[in-house]
């Protein structure tokens, strides 16, 4: 099955290309960004050797639909989605932090808690919690935004301000937007029988100095969801939660002795495993979005993307 794991497009007005873990971003005339959601899979800040069919389409469509569902409370960078794998938006200067917000003790936070830590990113965690318990209220635990091939690092609000990474005025806006988005995401998840456990948001500034939401939002790569039905019963019985997120990939890697640490080797990803991951992502899409996933034509995926982006740029009034 065809996937797109890298691109080498040359669009009209193209100034530069940035290649992230799973996205490739084309700068058009220092005005627009064309973001290609590839089928690359990243876990523990390491890009896996094989692509996952339809993953890029799934992430792009979830992110852009949630952008539209939250644009009334937080402005975002999005202008158009000319292709299933493509989002086009305003060029922004990204903030050098990722705003992670957690409603439950899960994932990285649970691993830190189990190791005995009771302070996470400057936030004190209450005693007596067990994995997947709900926090009294959501906590914000930012990370630095790592370059490709390096790991994000936990950082406190105080360190962000002290080191001048973000001004206090801007950071207060980032915190408000983060809480507002998480509340909206929680409400949408609840309407679909899900719990939004934790997620991360990225923000940037437009040329006009407006802070906007950028990149992805509420996707299974950036978020963790539990099924609401049976949540409390599973907690009471000390059972694992049934969840929708990329955590199943991380768990498979952990079982195969890989956590992105030095000297560890990515386990072999067989075709059967690749297809199973693709099917899981489709399941995630349909549950999160509450609609059937419609597969795009992937017979000539790069040609399709190039034609659709070129058609958009030709019709865009500035070009």
If you had to describe this structure to a student in words, what would you say it looks like?
The protein is 32% helix and 25% strand. It is an alpha+beta fold. The strands form four sheets. Strands 8, 9, 12, 13, 14, 15, 16 and 17 form an eight-stranded antiparallel β-sheet that branches. A five-stranded antiparallel β-sheet has the order 1-2-3-7-6. Strands 4-5 form a two-stranded antiparallel ribbon. Strand 10 (119-120) and strand 11 form a beta hairpin. The relative contact order is 0.18. The model has no long low-confidence stretch (mean pLDDT 93).
Beta-strand percent range: 25-35%
Structural Rg:
19 Å
Number of strands: 17
Helix content: 25-40%
Pairing-aware structural class of the strands and helices?
A: alpha+beta
* Contiguous helical run count: 8
Principal-axes geometry comes out as globular
- In sequence order, what are the helices and strands, one letter per element? EEEEEHEEEEHEEEEHHEEEHEHHH
Q: What does the largest sheet look like?
A: 8 strands, antiparallel
Furnish the topology, listing elements before pairings:
Blueprint: E1 14-19, E2 23-28, E3 32-37, E4 42-43, E5 46-47, H1 55-70, E6 78-83, E7 86-90, E8 93-94, E9 97-104, H2 107-114, E10 119-120, E11 123-124, E12 134-140, E13 143-144, H3 157-162, H4 168-191, E14 194-205, E15 211-214, E16 223-227, H5 231-236, E17 243-245, H6 247-255, H7 271-289, H8 301-315
Antiparallel strand pairs: 1-2, 2-3, 3-7, 4-5, 6-7, 8-14, 9-12, 9-13, 9-14, 10-11, 14-15, 14-16, 16-17
Keyword list:
alpha+beta, 17 strands, 319 residues, eight-stranded antiparallel sheet, five-stranded antiparallel sheet
């Amino acid at each position: 099955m065809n996937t797109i794991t890298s691109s080498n497009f040359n669009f009209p007005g193209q100034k530069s290309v940035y290649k992230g873990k799973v996205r490739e971003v084309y700068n058009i005339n220092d005005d627009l960004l064309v973001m290609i959601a590839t089928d690359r899979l990243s876990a523990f800040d390491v890009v896996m050797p094989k692509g996952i069919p339809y993953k890029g389409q799934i992430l792009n469509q979830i992110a852009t639909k949630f952008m539209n569902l939250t644009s009334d409370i937080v402005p975002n960078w999005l202008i158009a989605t000319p292709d299933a794998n493509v989002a086009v938006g305003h060029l922004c200067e990204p903030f050098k932090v990722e705003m992670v917000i957690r409603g439950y003790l899960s994932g990285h936070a649970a691993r830190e808690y189990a190791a005995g830590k009771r302070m996470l990113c400057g936030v004190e965690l209450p005693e007596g919690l067990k994995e997947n318990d709900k926090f009294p209220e959501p906590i914000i635990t930012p990370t630095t935004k790592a370059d490709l091939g390096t790991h994000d690092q936990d950082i406190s609000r105080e360190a962000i301000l002290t080191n001048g990474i973000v001004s206090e005025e801007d950071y207060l806006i980032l915190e408000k937007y983060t809480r507002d988005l998480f509340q909206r995401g929680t409400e949408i998840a609840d309407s679909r029988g899900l719990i939004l456990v934790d997620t991360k948001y990225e923000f940037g500034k437009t040329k006009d100095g407006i802070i906007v939401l950028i990149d992805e939002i509420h996707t299974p790569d950036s978020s963790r969801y539990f099924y609401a039905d049976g949540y409390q019963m599973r907690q009471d019985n000390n059972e694992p939660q049934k969840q929708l997120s990329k955590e199943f990939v991380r768990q498979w890697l952990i079982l195969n002795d890989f956590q992105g640490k030095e000297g560890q080797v990515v386990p072999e990803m067989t075709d059967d495993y690749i297809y199973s991951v693709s099917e899981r992502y489709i399941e995630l899409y349909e549950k999160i979005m509450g609609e059937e996933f419609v597969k795009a034509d992937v017979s000539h995926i790069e040609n399709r993307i190039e034609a659709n982006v070129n058609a958009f740029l030709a019709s865009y009034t500035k070009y």
